[in-house]
Design a protein that fits this description.
The complex is a heterotrimer of chains A (about 475), B (about 280) and C (about 400).
Chain A (H helix, E strand, L loop, with lengths): L10 E6 L3 H10 L8 E6 L7 H9 L4 E6 L10 H15 L10 E5 L5 H18 L33 H13 L4 E7 L6 E6 L2 H5 L23 E5 L1 H12 L8 E6 L7 H7 L6 E7 L2 E6 L2 E6 H4 L2 H4 L11 E3 L15 H7 L3 H13 L6 H5 L25 H14 L9 H5 L7 H15 L30
Parallel strand pairs in A: 1-2, 1-3, 3-4, 5-7, 7-8, 8-12
Antiparallel strand pairs in A: 5-6, 9-10, 10-11
Helix pairs in contact in A: 1-4, 2-14, 3-16, 11-16, 12-14, 14-16
Chain B lengths: L15 E10 L4 E8 L2 H6 L7 E6 L3 E6 L10 E6 L3 H7 L6 E8 L12 E7 L3 H13 L7 E7 L11 H6 L3 E7 L9 E2 L2 H8 L6 E6 L2 H13 L7 E4 L15 E2 L2 E2 L6 E3 H5 L6
Parallel strand pairs in B: 7-8, 7-11, 8-9, 9-10, 11-12
Antiparallel strand pairs in B: 1-2, 1-6, 2-5, 3-4, 3-6, 12-15, 13-14
Chain C lengths: L2 E5 L1 H12 L3 E8 L2 E6 L2 H6 L21 E11 L7 E6 L7 E6 L1 H15 L6 H9 E6 L25 E6 L2 E6 L2 H7 L5 E2 L4 H13 L10 H8 L3 H7 L8 H5 L6 E7 L3 E8 L20 H19 L11 H4 L7 H9 L44
Parallel strand pairs in C: 2-6, 6-7, 7-8
Antiparallel strand pairs in C: 1-9, 1-10, 2-3, 4-5, 4-12, 8-9, 11-12
Helix pairs in contact in C: 3-4, 7-10, 7-12, 8-10
The chains are: A alpha/beta (about 475), B alpha/beta (about 280), C alpha+beta (about 400).
Chain lengths: ~475, ~280, ~400
């Protein structure tokens, strides 16, 4: 399959068996003259086209990818192409974040009788790809390692002082334990004053160790599915509660098995930002939190910092500081700010400021240091496949064991793709990353596209149907693209 | 071995290219593969002890560990019996005579048969667990005069699942081996025993005096057969088994087949029950 | 051998730049918020300020010798002209190593290579890939100028100025660095370097070492850790409780300077393919999952038990009592849920009696292990440990 140097480009076509493949046949039978760049892969239905097929082709050297199915309302399986339309539109709008020109990917509809239309589609798409030229290769793109630190202004005042309702929360948990709850997931002080760690509280003494405040960074929703079948409780910040909602709506945990304890959140910290202010590696001797000030004594020095300096990015733009679902809510809810015009976190803001090629270089530079530990997956409450992740499979083999940037980035694409419409934006993937790779930007790219097209945010309503699990016959927010 | 640039004398990861000489369909899920190294010099040098394993690989698919189930006296080929289960074993099952494979062998320890001289040996094999039994049993039979009474109890789910059908007549008629075959459930035209291995073993009731028990099979069979042997009065140091674990390197480095501080690929796969008693219970 | 040389910061970077013309020089580099080892050219090194080269790396420098992924075997086949279904396969050994200087790792990191050497080089089989790279690598270690809150090298038989595993150990003193040349390899590396004699700085070096060592909190006595942790093996409740918060993500193992585990997978086809060795983690369920579906360690508590036991019990049992943990603390500092191996080790030891092994015949192919090992005299029924205190803490 040698590509005629300079004449042909590598274009992959996924064609539905019932319509477009037939359309291509019709064009061939009619001896229509068409470009020969396209390599056709026949699929049962455009709904069979996993967006990862397209990503895999584009990541591994395809210059263009075309998906063609039956016209809407004509699907052999009645609705496959309706689902495909949503997925593929989302994918097309996702591509720029990894530096791939969205024009290199297109989806369209051609019926079996439309030989002429098929000819036009192929001719026009091939011409488009030729105009774009060969896709830039990962090997050739210069890696870049810069990413400016941007401290977003928070939508609401963030605080770190002691929460007045903590005793109330502890009492509610003790009461629930007394009434037969097996245990409650919460946080306690970790190995030093700024590290919290998850704890499964089963006794009143353990409940007394519960802490609430800026160090409660972990999203405990991640643990819930492993307790399925047992009656337990979980303490949540607003962001964590969205994870619980999503798990409930997907039926991965059941409402009568989990009691949710909430309290108003005033923001949590990015530990790296605190550590960066301290003498390198210094042992934390003490830490005091008052108002919006954190005072840390470490290595003999006392250093004061504000939440504005050290808060996690997500907290700055958080509009759901209170549990969106709870059985017991202690204290008064924190005031909820209006949703911001621009909900992008620094990773995506920076990517948006780059050219497509620079974005490729950005990911090349970032993923180079990925050690493929997959802590991002381990910490993700929505990575519910756990021991059966498709990226670990040898058949299909989405990723190899090779430590190339493409392989490591492809794992991130799988993660992001599988979270499309499900990611609640807790940013645990990024926080868990030991190499501080800004992987959340990929999920946020999907998130904002879904918000834009479907006006949907995950983790807010237990009864909501995620946009990729449904469709409308007429999609008013998806612009039909016609290649013919 | 091909050229070396690193100055090391031996590369344990480099397989010998071998050719499949013969494929024997043993049961619906088990096939035996007779292979021989392409490099005659390497083949001449190649020796192993009964119980040692090899990494058999299909290039491009991967490696998997199997016991060499021919006795060391066989100089024509080595045989691996493979049950089709996963990616590599499925690829192996597609091999035909003339196909090339990779072999890294011998690996691991072997049956301490030198120490068994003068003793009676009871071999018990269940299903694919007959493979390691075959190698040591054939070896011991070749030197039958050095040993006491030899007996075999071989069980499988059904007559179709019984491997080594070509060997069975010889084993049944052997002067030096007393063979008992059993299947789990009644089947038409089955002239031998019916019943689970532990039950049949208790009926046969071999004497523990001056005797060694060698057993291999699926975990559940091992569990109950071990109990049966103990009931019959066999001491744990005289009960010998071979272990299975997921293995990759086969040389005690990659870390996955450990049982406590021991690596099954290097310190095993052959252990006496007494040795296993000393290891953490993590089966 | 040991001799002291003195280098000013400028002399040190100039020396490194000089080395980079003939070999791969790996130095700690800031990438994003992380510090990673990267090869640097002579120009980059001479332009670099020395302080940029003295950061402690986020991930361990083990990849200098044991890369994340490497090709173990390359294979190629040619089709028979008469019968294309017949192919002739040749395997190639891609084993080669580039002369390398690993600069600026810490004593714990350097000791990590000593820990890896035991399984990789001192077992019955020698790993030629690791061996060749180890041989070709000269390790220039920085005595720790300060300690991290998560450091515990002094728990496991080391200290912040330990020279074990290093070829050169350098210490920051007033006005520059004192290089202690520890091995012949180290000596070869400074040959021709215009460093002043540093013997008059011995006191300053000792003072710097002392100051750092004193910054460490007192260490618990781990002399019985191997036996006690082995005895804790069957206390399922303990391991379950300790790992409630574990995400089973495996970051700890990939950051560890001593985690030795790897997997082998084939890529490509028989016609043109590669057999790869890549890092693997005992924290993933697939690590021990057998084809039959059976898994000896299906639960995260069992996997963590294996990790802790391997470092503090199994490895010492196999290798003369040495722990396979060097106390770098990376697994603690980078754990998303702040799981602390120090806590797990001390908690596992608490209230445990390390049992002497019962009289047992030595396992085949095994050196006699002097260290006490697991009890477990009742194999069929996993027995509970003699004392199971600390059910509740």
């Amino acid at each position: 399959m040698s590509v005629l140097a300079g004449k042909e480009l590598r274009i992959v076509g996924f064609l539905c068996n019932w319509c477009s493949y037939g359309g291509a046949d019709t064009a061939g039978t009619a001896r229509a003259v068409q470009p020969t760049d396209l390599r056709i892969i026949r699929v049962p239905c455009s709904g069979r086209v996993n967006p990862l097929f397209v990503l895999k082709a584009l990541m591994n050297g395809a210059d263009g990818v075309l998906v063609s199915g039956c016209h809407p309302r004509d699907c052999h399986y009645s609705s496959g192409n309706f689902y495909a339309r949503r997925r593929l539109e989302l994918l097309k709008q996702f591509l720029p974040v990894i530096g791939i020109d969205p024009e290199r990917f297109e989806y369209t509809w051609v019926s079996a009788s439309e030989g002429q239309r098929w000819k036009d589609v192929v001719t026009n798409f091939t011409a488009r790809i030729h105009a774009l030229g060969p896709a830039p290769r990962w090997e050739d793109v210069p890696a870049r390692y810069d990413m400016p630190v941007e401290l977003l202004e928070s939508l609401r005042p963030l605080g770190c002082g002691e929460h007045p309702a903590l005793p109330e929360l502890k009492q509610a948990i003790k009461d629930a334990l007394a009434q037969g709850l097996e245990g409650v997931l919460g946080w306690k002080k970790g190995f030093d004053a700024i590290h919290a760690e998850p704890v499964f509280m089963t006794t009143p003494e353990e409940v007394d160790s519960l802490i609430w405040g800026p160090f409660n960074v972990q999203n405990l929703a991640v643990f819930l599915p492993q307790y399925k079948g047992r009656k337990i409780g979980v303490v949540v910040k607003g962001c964590d509660s969205k994870g619980v909602v999503e798990l409930l709506s997907e039926g991965l945990i059941s409402r009568d098995e989990v009691q949710i304890f909430g309290m108003g959140c005033n923001g949590t910290v990015n530990l790296s930002r605190i550590l960066a202010k301290l003498p390198e590696g210094a042992a934390i001797e003490s830490c005091a939190c008052r108002g919006n000030k954190i005072t840390v004594t470490a290595g003999g020095q006392t250093i004061e910092m504000t939440m504005a300096e050290v808060a996690q990015d997500k907290c700055r733009l958080c509009t759901k500081p209170n549990a969106v679902i709870s059985d017991a809510f202690a204290g008064t809810p924190t005031t909820e700010p209006e949703a911001p015009q621009d909900g992008r976190l620094p990773g995506l803001r920076f990517l948006d400021s780059l050219s497509l090629e620079e974005r490729m270089g950005f990911w090349k530079g970032q993923m180079e240091r990925c050690i493929a530990c997959h802590a991002c997956r381990g910490a993700c409450p929505m990575c519910v496949c756990r021991d059966h992740c498709v990226s670990d499979s040898r058949d299909p083999e989405w990723v190899t064991q090779e430590d190339t940037v493409q392989q490591k980035l492809f794992f991130q694409l799988i993660h992001a793709q599988h979270l499309a419409g499900r990611c609640t934006g807790c940013t645990e993937c990024e926080r868990a990353c030991p190499m501080d790779i800004p992987v959340f930007a990929l999920k946020q790219q999907f998130g904002r596209t879904i918000q834009k097209i479907f006006s949907y945010g995950a983790g807010l309503d237990v009864n909501a149907t995620p946009p990729l699990l449904t469709y409308q016959v007429e999609e008013t927010t998806i612009k039909e693209r016609d290649l013919a | 071995m091909s050229e070396h640039t690193c100055g090391c004398s031996k590369n344990p990861y480099l397989p010998e290219v071998a050719t499949v000489l013969e494929v024997i369909t043993e049961s619906p899920t088990i096939k035996s593969f007779r292979v021989r190294f392409d490099n005659e010099e390497a083949w001449e040098r190649f020796t192993y002890r009964p119980g040692q394993v090899g990494q058999l690989s299909v290039f491009g698919v991967g490696e998997s560990t199997f016991v060499i189930n021919t006795p060391p006296s066989c100089r024509e080929y080595i045989q691996f019996s493979v049950m089709r289960a996963g990616e590599v074993t499925s690829a192996i099952h597609k091999l035909h005579p003339g196909d090339q494979v990779g072999v890294r062998a011998p690996l691991g320890n072997s049956f301490p048969c030198e120490q068994w001289k003068g003793k009676n040996i009871v071999f018990v094999g269940g299903g694919i667990g007959m493979a390691p039994i075959r190698t040591i049993m054939l070896h011991v039979m070749e030197h039958a005069s050095d040993y006491g009474k030899l007996s075999l109890l071989y069980g499988a789910k059904s007559p179709e699942d019984m491997a080594y059908k070509a060997d069975l007549p010889a084993w049944l008629e052997s002067d030096v081996l007393h063979t008992t075959l059993t299947i789990d459930r009644e089947a038409p035209n089955w002239p031998h025993r019916v019943g689970m291995i532990p039950t049949v073993l208790k009926e046969l009731a071999p004497s523990p005096d001056n005797s060694i028990a060698v057993l291999c099979g699926p975990p559940i069979m091992i569990k109950f057969t071990l109990a049966a042997f103990r009931e019959l009065g066999f001491k744990d140091e005289n009960i010998v088994t071979t272990l299975e674990r997921r293995m990759k390197c086969g040389i005690g480095i990659c870390g996955r087949c450990n049982l406590g501080g021991k690596y099954v690929c290097l310190d095993g796969p052959v252990f006496t029950q007494a040795q296993l008693n000393e290891l953490p219970p993590e089966m | 051998m040991s001799s002291l040389l003195f280098a000013t910061p400028a002399e040190l970077t100039a020396w490194l730049a000089g080395l980079a013309s003939g070999q791969r020089v790996l130095v700690p580099c800031q990438e994003g918020p992380s510090v990673v080892y990267r090869p640097r050219t002579a120009e980059q090194l001479s332009a670099a300020g020395v302080n940029a080269l003295l950061r402690r790396s986020t991930s361990s420098p083990k990849q200098a010798v044991l890369p994340q992924c490497e090709t173990l075997v390359a294979f190629k086949s040619v089709k028979d002209e008469q019968d294309p279904s017949k192919v002739t396969t040749t395997v190639e050994n891609p084993c080669k190593a580039e002369p390398t200087v690993l600069f600026g790792c810490r004593p714990c990191d350097a000791r990590g290579f000593v820990v890896l050497d035991r399984p990789y080089l001192h077992g019955p089989f020698k790993d030629p890939y690791y061996g060749a790279r180890r041989e070709a690598t000269t390790i220039v270690t920085q005595a720790c100028p300060s300690v991290f809150a998560t450091c515990f090298c002094h728990w496991v038989g080391s200290h912040p100025a330990d020279g074990e595993g290093s070829d050169i150990l350098f210490t920051a003193v007033e006005g520059g660095f004192v290089l202690d040349i520890l091995t012949e390899k180290g000596k070869a590396l400074v040959e021709g370097a215009a460093f002043a004699d540093g013997s008059d700085k011995a006191e300053a070096v000792a003072a710097a070492h002392k100051a750092t060592a004193e910054a460490l909190a007192p260490a618990p006595n781990l002399s019985e850790a191997a036996a006690k942790i082995a005895a804790r093996f069957t206390d399922t409740a303990f391991w379950t409780r300790e790992t409630v918060k574990c995400l089973s993500c495996g970051a700890c193992t990939y950051l560890c300077p001593t985690c030795q585990c790897f997997t082998i997978t084939d890529e490509g086809s028989q016609l043109n393919g590669r057999r790869l060795r890549s890092w693997d983690s005992c924290m993933t369920p697939l690590f021990t999952l057998e084809t039959s579906g059976h898994n000896p360690r299906p639960d995260k508590s069992q996997r963590m038990r294996n990790r802790v036991s391997h470092k503090f019990s199994f490895y010492p049992e196999r290798y003369d009592g040495f722990f396979s943990c060097v106390g770098c603390g990376r697994c603690v500092i980078s754990c998303p849920v702040s799981l602390d191996i120090r806590h797990m080790v001390t908690a596992a030891m608490e209230g445990m009696e390390g049992k002497k092994p019962a009289e047992a015949p030595a396992a085949p192919a095994e050196k006699t292990a002097e260290t006490p090992k697991a009890p477990a005299d009742a194999p069929a029924a996993p027995k509970t440990p003699a004392k199971s205190k600390s059910k509740k803490r």
